[in-house]
Amino acid sequence: MKKNWKELDIALIVKKGGTAQDFKTGDWRSSKPLWDQEKCKQCLICWLFCPDSSIEVKDGKMTGIDYEHCKGCGICAKECPFKAISMEEEKK
Amino acid sequence: MSNIVAKTGNEAMAEAMRQINPDVVAAYPITPATEIVQIFSSFVSDGKVDTVFVPTESEHSAISACIGAAASGARVMTGTSSQGLALMHEILFIASGLRLPMVICEVNRALSAPINIHCDHSDTMASRDAGWIQIFSEDPQEAYDQTILAMKLSEDIFFPAMVTTDGFIISHAMSRLEMYSDKEVQDFLGEHKTPYNILDTEKPMTVGSIVLQDFYMEIRTQMAAEMFKAKAKIQDAYAEFNKKMNRNYNVIEKYFMDDAEYVIVALGSTAGSARYLCEKLRENNEKVGVVKPRVFRPFFAPELVEILENAKGVAVLDRSDMMSSTGGHLFNELKSAFYGNAKQPPMKNYIYGLGGRDINMSDIEKVLHDIKEFSVSKVKDSDVKYITVRE
Predict the structure, then answer these.
(1) Which of A14, B40, B173, B304 is most buried by its number of CB atoms within 10 A?
(2) Cβ of B196 under 8 Å from any chain A Cβ?
(3) How many domains is chain A built from?
């Protein structure tokens, strides 16, 4: 349940750091990157270029795409030397 | 021990600022308010205050710097007028939306065009919906007292406040001023209160983040509710000020209102002229009275209705025009305040004194004659009249 108007902090200040992650911006996306694991050589160029830190990496390897924050800019698909990422139109 | 001196409105406000001793003053000069911050900057140079003085390149920057300082836990003040307040307009809403206490010493002056440096209330009235407390003063004494009062009030309710004088009429006119000692002012203010402090490294926070459809409605509703509650706190603040500083101020001042039949409602310096006239007319047993609202925002609507509802005629003097075909600001507020009230006294608006045009005793006396005629006349073709104008 979201807070009602009586429960909110004054001026709606945010009382902790690192809260941008809680702001789900992925629904702004009009096209979606699709990751082909078989073509991926784990060079991490996509991770380097992604302006929204939406390439998920664990132990030095790409593990997926954070669709809650990816805005579908397509830079990863454009930069991937192995064409392991392709863009697909969002169907909503 | 009070100290009796002769000061202009601007000097009185500068002295109030000195005694408040704010942490930060950011300001840009503008006639007729320049002197306030100019005199204050001398206090800074002479080491009479502990203030960081920030001379900015515009009023937009001045009020922005005030917001940054207030959000950092500082006690903050500035001064401005007319186009300067208009240039602050965008930022005024941010100061109130962030619920930051601060005080603007605002000198009422006409807005361009045509350019004019003299008094009317169009600048302050144009800021009426910005979520600021707005207080009008009749003379340097009230300007001094209410500046001190507003600083404490603003920190009690977490809304910014502007205390106004009338350009040149008060700002540059010298009169008797009874000053408190610096200690009395500091004791009244007490410890500085702030809603939050962005420099608190133990508690990192974000102030002014984007708030869209899911929470904006809620936070603005909360702000409106807090402004509603502020009305009682403003009355308490005046009561506390009276008690500690030995004054007799009310949120709405009433003169001869026990039996007044015809009443003038006016803000600022003109209320003093109207009161003087009524004192004279009372010598001839004319049942006339004056109501002077000190606080325009928030608007004390039911309180004013209660004071005015038994009058035979109410003449509302406005030193500003809404350019809406419906008259001035005070008139529109009062008229809507009376909607649905059982008693509806005849009410007429008199727009006067724009751009510093003088209003004298005979002008106000004509208003009283006119409101008497208006009240008894069957045909009321217009309830807005422009006076002190060549016809």
Answers:
(1) B40
(2) yes
(3) 1
**Domain coverage including residue A29:** 21-89
The closest of B84, B45, B82 to B66, measured between CA atoms, is B84
**Amino acid B1: pLDDT:** 53
Contact A16 B196 (CB under 8 A): no
For residue A77, give the CATH number of its domain: 3.30.70.20
Residue A81: helix, strand or coil by DSSP? Answer: coil
Q: B158: nearest CA in chain A?
A: A10
Considering the domain boundaries, does residue A13 fall inside one?
no
Is A15 inside a domain boundary? no
pLDDT single digits (tens) A27-83: 989 999 999 999 999 999 999 999 999 999 999 999 999 999 999 999 999 999 999
B215:A6 CB<8 A: no
Chain A contact present for B218, CB below 8 A: yes
Partner-chain contact B99 A11, CB within 8 Å: yes
Nearby residues of B69 by Cβ (< 8 Å), 6 or more positions away: B23, B24, B26, B52, B76
Q: Tokens 């030095």 label which residue?
A: A60
What is d(CA B358, CA B2) in angstroms, rounded to the nearest whole number? 34
Contact between B205 and A19 using a beta-carbon 8 Å cutoff = no
Smallest CA–CA distance from A12 into chain B, residue: B219
Domains and CATH numbers, chain B: 3-245 (3.40.50.970), 252-386 (3.40.50.920)
Could you tell me if residue A9 is inside a domain? no
In a domain, A72, yes or no: yes
- What ipTM score was computed for the predicted complex, to two decimals? 0.90
